Amino acid sequence: MKNTFTYLPFILGFTVYLFLLSNSSGGPAQSTGAPGEATCGRSGCHDVAENTGAASIAITFDEASLVYAPGETYAMTVGLANAMNEAKNGFQLVALDSLNNNAGSWELVEESNTQIRAGNSLADRSYLTHTTAGNEQTSWMVNWQAPAESIGAISFYLSVNDANANGGRTGDDIYITNLSINPAGSTSTNVLDQLSRKVTIYPNPARDFINIQSSGITVLNTTVYDATGSIVHASSNPTSLNLSNLTAGIYFLKMDTSEGNLVKRLLLN
């Protein structure tokens, strides 16, 4: 009995260590805050309220076109801005249809930084999360392939852990958000989708500068809005923007082009 109690603290401590180590190599499945799921904040792992810290998170889908065609593949980025520790962060992302069933599939772009995990009790769901190497990033890229048939609106649910790197469960901040896309179909939607594909902004997420590349059209004016709708930057006929005076966070870039107006979401680190 004496030996049991002597080693019990070591066993418990080692168990906690392994749990934390496993999370650094990817979040436990079903932690996005999607319907039927908890988050790392609610499950008892961190026991904190979501979206209460100073950071912000965002999902960028195919340069913010927000429409999909059956069977097509789209580039996505998820990111964390104003992180308390840029070297220790994690995320988890899932795509669901209106019935909360898994929608589409993931294709890894950064295989060393991201991985795919299956659900547990929600076994049909497929989750994208970080790896041990990806734990040291504030943004992650992936490709998402749309379902073979149009299934209506699809929602992406994202959870991000902004970790303080103290090796424990305390002091971390948990953030959640979601983004919905719709099937391409209406004439107006198709026109907007085509316009969005003609203008690319990069990098996104960015830090100080972004580049604007257009194909077959002219970008006449740009206006950058913050999350409150206030104008924080404006320029004419730009090919790049210097945004070094802006704080980290989520912004919206409105572009007046020769074929109409376009808005893209921008994340600054």
Q: What do these coordinates show?
A:
This protein is 13% helix and 41% strand. It is mainly β and 269 residues long. The chain folds into two domains: 26-183, Immunoglobulin-like (Sandwich); 196-268, Immunoglobulin-like (Sandwich), CATH 2.60.40. The longest helix is centred in the N-terminal third of the chain and has 23 residues, at 2-24.
Any idea how many domains?
2
CATH fold category name of the largest domain? Immunoglobulin-like
* Helical residue percent band: 10-25%
CATH class of the largest domain: Mainly Beta
Topology, number of strands? 17
Q: Please, what is the average pLDDT?
A: 82
Shape: globular
What are the salient characteristics of this protein?
four-stranded antiparallel beta sheet, single chain, Immunoglobulin-like, mainly beta, six-stranded mixed beta sheet, disordered N terminus, 41% strand, 269 residues, 2 helices, 13% helix, globular
Produce the secondary structure layout.
Blueprint: H1 2-24, E1 56-61, E2 67-68, E3 73-81, E4 89-97, E5 105-108, E6 114-118, E7 126-130, E8 139-145, E9 154-162, E10 173-183, H2 187-198, E11 199-202, E12 209-214, E13 219-225, E14 231-236, E15 240-242, E16 249-257, E17 260-268
Parallel strand pairs: 2-10
Antiparallel strand pairs: 1-3, 3-8, 4-7, 4-9, 5-8, 6-7, 9-10, 11-12, 12-15, 13-14, 13-16, 16-17
